[in-house]
Design goal:
Elements (H helix, E strand, L loop, with lengths): L4 H10 L6 E3 L14 E2 L14 E4 L13 E9 L13 E5 L11 E4 L3 E4 L2 E4 L21 E3 L7 H9 L6 E3 L3 E7 L3 E2 L10 E2 L1 H12 L3 E8 L3 H10 L5 E5 L10 H8 L2 E6 L2 E2 L3 E7 L2 E6 L3 H19 L9 E6 L10 E11 L2 E6 L9 H5 L2 E5 L11 E6 L4
Parallel strand pairs: 4-5, 11-14, 11-15, 12-13, 15-19, 17-21, 20-22
Antiparallel strand pairs: 1-10, 2-9, 3-5, 3-6, 4-8, 7-8, 16-18, 18-19, 20-24, 21-22, 21-23, 23-24
Length: about 400
């Protein structure tokens, strides 16, 4: 009897923990997960600085300045970005200053360059209201000792920039799971091999390799094993140093579906052998010495859906993520789906934002062995077990696979 999807996910997630941490050069940390919190060792900005090109001065000196009554100040310094002020600003004086340069002692504001005319060492200010707001104060964004980023944060562009800003050249991140991918089946041919009668190319390994990378892990392709127990055992033994081992094919009930026999021969304890989903019901999961082995269907759509719902959350947890699930939302079905669903069904779909809500269209060609719909799908419709055919206009749940 098949276990429920919730039970399968729970069983697998309980068997894994985040991998160990390692220090990695910041340039190589994109989409990795921070293994520790980041504490600022300095204020940012590290000094009072100018947010614009202009003149640093005492705000009260120019508070009443206008085109009709300009204020004339003596220019006592010129401060490019990267330089430090040489003199303090006193009443009646100003310092020419560039964006990002330190504000000199005594200055309480910066007037825009556009509101000033400088001639022969004197600055004539034509507008001075609000110049006291034109200062970036030391530590106004980040204070020394502040916890800036929490552990478990995925390194995106903003995190990369902030880590660089704080001088974190080699952050500690969780190791990426290494995932062995093995296709089984005497009918499966290498993608560069000429197709013989009865053969199909090994699309599964390449499809799953992309899904592995999308889950923040590293795929390791182990090729193809013929439908022979010894051949499959040899390949799985070669993959023993990987963190998770995934096979495709050989998990149904046919005479040449041998992966269950391989598990018995290798001493892999079976956790379950079917999951109540369509497509992708044949899923053989086992555990040996703390390492997970997961066998998926050889049918491409079935393998892809089962990976998405069962393997992906495991990889996200192993890689240190705090959230393991794709976002879900409600959407309006734009076309009928005519099949009843005895098990939880996942349907490749195109989801679109419309008038503040979402619509979703089931894509054609939804068979277990079909991949064409996966090319344009940005969502999967989630149809609960026991559902009748669905009419257009029904409200359905969708699992979002990409940004809309």
């Amino acid at each position: 009897m098949a276990v429920s999807l919730d039970m399968a996910q729970d069983k697998l997630l309980k068997t894994v923990q985040p991998l160990a941490a390692e220090e990695v050069a910041l340039a190589d940390c994109w989409r990795r997960v921070l293994a520790g919190e980041i504490v600022a060792d300095t204020d940012f900005p590290p000094f009072d600085r100018s947010p614009l090109d202009g003149y640093a001065l005492i705000a009260a000196d120019v508070a009443e300045a206008s085109p009709q009554q300009p204020v004339v100040l003596e220019v006592v310094d010129d401060i490019p970005a990267g330089n430090v002020p040489r003199v303090a600003v006193r009443p009646g004086t100003a310092a020419k200053i560039m964006t990002g340069a330190p504000v000199p002692e005594g200055a309480t504001g910066v007037v825009r360059r556009e509101d000033v005319r400088e001639e022969e060492g004197r600055a004539t200010v034509f507008a001075g209201a609000g110049v006291d707001n034109n200062l970036c104060r030391r530590g106004e964004e980040i204070a020394a000792g502040e916890k800036v980023i929490t552990a478990g944060t995925v390194v995106n562009a903003g995190v990369m920039g902030l880590l660089a800003l704080l001088g974190v050249a080699r952050p500690r991140v969780y190791k990426q799971p290494r995932v062995a991918l093995l296709a089984t089946g005497s009918e499966v041919a290498d993608i560069e091999a000429p197709l013989k009668p009865g053969a199909i190319r090994n699309s599964n390994s390449y499809m799953l390799a992309a899904q592995v990378r999308d889950a923040g892990a590293e795929p390791v392709l182990f090729g193809i094993a013929r439908d022979e127990i010894a051949a499959i055992i040899t390949r799985l033994s070669d993959a023993a140093d990987c963190d998770l081992i995934v096979t495709t094919g050989g998990v149904s009930a046919g005479d040449y579906d041998l992966v269950a026999d391989v598990y018995r021969e290798m001493g892999i304890d079976v956790l379950f052998d079917r999951v109540g989903i369509k497509p992708g019901m044949p899923v053989l999961a086992g555990l040996k010495a703390g390492k997970l082995y997961i066998g998926l269907s050889g049918n491409p759509a079935a393998a892809s859906v089962a990976f998405e719902q069962i393997v992906r959350p495991v990889l996200l947890k192993m890689g240190g993520r705090r959230e393991w699930w794709r976002p879900r939302a409600k959407a309006l079905l734009t076309a009928p789906f005519t099949k009843p669903s005895g098990a939880t069904r996942f349907v490749w779909a195109a989801c679109r934002p419309v008038n503040g809500g979402l619509t979703v269209e089931p894509l054609p060609l939804q068979g277990n062995g079909m991949l064409k719909s996966a090319v344009t799908a940005n969502a999967m419709i989630v149809i609960p077990a026991g559902s009748p055919p669905l009419a257009a206009g029904s409200v359905v749940e969708v699992c979002l696979l990409a940004d809309l």
